[in-house]
Amino acid sequence: xxxxxxxxxxxxxxxxxxxxxxxxxxxxxxSAEAARQAAFLNxxxxxxxxxxxxxxxxxxxxxxxxxxxxxxxxxGEANGVNAPQDEKPDFEGYAAARQYGIRAAYAAMTTGDxxxxxxxxxxxxxxxxxxxxxTLVAKPHVxxxxxxxxxxxxxxxxxxxxxxxxxxxxxxxxPYLRPTDSPLPAPGRLRRDDVLAVLASLLSTSAPTVxxxxxxxxxxxxxxxxxxxxxxxxxxxxxxxxxAYEAVxxxxxAGGAAVQVQSYRGYFNKYWPRNLSPAVxxxxxxxxxxxxxxxxxxxxxxYGCGDLxxxxxxxxxxxxxxxxxxxxxxxxxxxxxAGGLSAFAVFAGxxxxxRRGEGEADWAAPVPVGGQNLVPHLDTVVTPDGxxxxxxxxxxxxxxxxxxxxxxxxxERPGAGFTWTDVGNPDADGDPVRARELGMPYAVxxxxxxxxxxxxxxxxxxxxxxxxxxxxxxxxxGLDGGGIRDALVAVAxxxxxxxxxxxxxxxxxxxxxxPGGRFGKRRTLLHGSMDGTLAVVRAVSGGxxxxxxxxxxxxxxxxxxxxxxATVKANGGTGAVAGLLRxxxxxxxxxxxxxxxxxxxxxxxxxxPVWHGSxxxxxxxxxxxxxxxxxxxxxxxxVDGRLWTCRLDGLVxxxxxxxxxxxxxxxxx
Length: 669
What we know:
The protein is built from seven helices and 39 strands.
């Protein structure tokens, strides 16, 4: 039976000294050499984007004591009315109220005191470029930056103050306002390159290991080939993401450190199954209440101490009830290969690989293996001839927006370097707008050496492309049934392949009886509110174990086997679940509500697991693999950009996580 050995790389970079409590088992291997500083740069369109869409990740970084810099490109002054505070438009006042609210929220998240003091100042760059920063006095590693670009709802020139016009050149420069009480000397104007220069400066001064931003390719709500797409998200969100990705690209080209990028879905979260536990949800919205001045606490400024357009109605908007990634990570990025293990991740658009040979105790430093402008995650398979195949998505940005294509990296022979080619996009022959919503690829290899890659397409259906042993790709074909989320996994057993997907309320499956055959009709395996995640468990005995689907609120997991499905307690947390099946016992690995690693004791599938927290703060999803000696390992990519692994045997309380180096600068790739 051919065993699939996939991968799906994660996303951060740099280095990180993470403040860990004493007496935890992983501290004993957290060496001084490993303790480089993890840091975050959040690139948002408006004050509150990070509270709605990037949390609880921001909260977890702050709780770790990591440096966090959040930059807001627009003033977000909307119609200028901080209702019901203002009776008439006051754009400068409303922008100031939003900034007051976001400072109060960050102060509360970091120190517990919303009234903690900030040092506000003007930063200057060559060419008379100025922007405002606020640094938390008690915790000076927390900084907020404001570019204050105008973004009114009812611009007299028909919306020319949108980020879109600055990005695509319809305006040479955009005005920025001076919020009330701002240290800025006066209003002014910023050009496209000025915005990128500010982001370059922040990339340099904050030295992030992780860049977080919004969705560069949000999902459509309605579509008409003549009128285009009606998107689920605010247009400033996607253009903020464009600026972030372009800034990272230039940072890498200039020799900057390897940085991972994570994009978060915005307004579409309200159409997505909720995935936050009740406790995390309430904590998240407690800070939105501070931002929105929902408690009505005493205020000494006339423009208001928060955003009353959010006010007490933050929960009513519904798009903050989840935190979801635009490019979700899978759990098969740790690969048994050449007797040892390999692991892969995407840094600054390029793939890096860690290797540990057979019998070796330490991982070698990661090396770049190619790819350009790739979004964070990958999938991989090993064909029977021993070659590794990597699948990802390249995102090329120009003034019209992102162009997405599935890419394939393949070794000419085992152990050789990777050659990268395009596999295409199932919507590429139509309107280019449709091609933007390409999902993340998932691939399987058959016993004869053929490959099949699956992606979610614009119609929210599955598109499939197959290559024979010679490597020639056939046409894209579609499977029946729509409404799927961007989570696909396939299980290959002998000649048969089963493909699994989730909708918002179903776990579904298609089957193919032979590599050259066609997939049958979609079957529903389970009805229930899903959280959009899916993974395949690794089995020590060969082949694949059960499929694990997450359910809403982080409360339960569904385990799907040939014998049926079972639902068990999940202990909170978000993201896909990695797993190991050994001697009929299951071990699960998942991010918990604190952003660390939860691991279960071995237990029979379908029985309630016992979860234990361990490990470091990490990104993406965990992974599990078994080497040639039968030793199982769990792995995560930490927020410091390092690969962290532990032997997955013995008691959970005795797990020892060990770090491999983070990638260097990638400018020479």
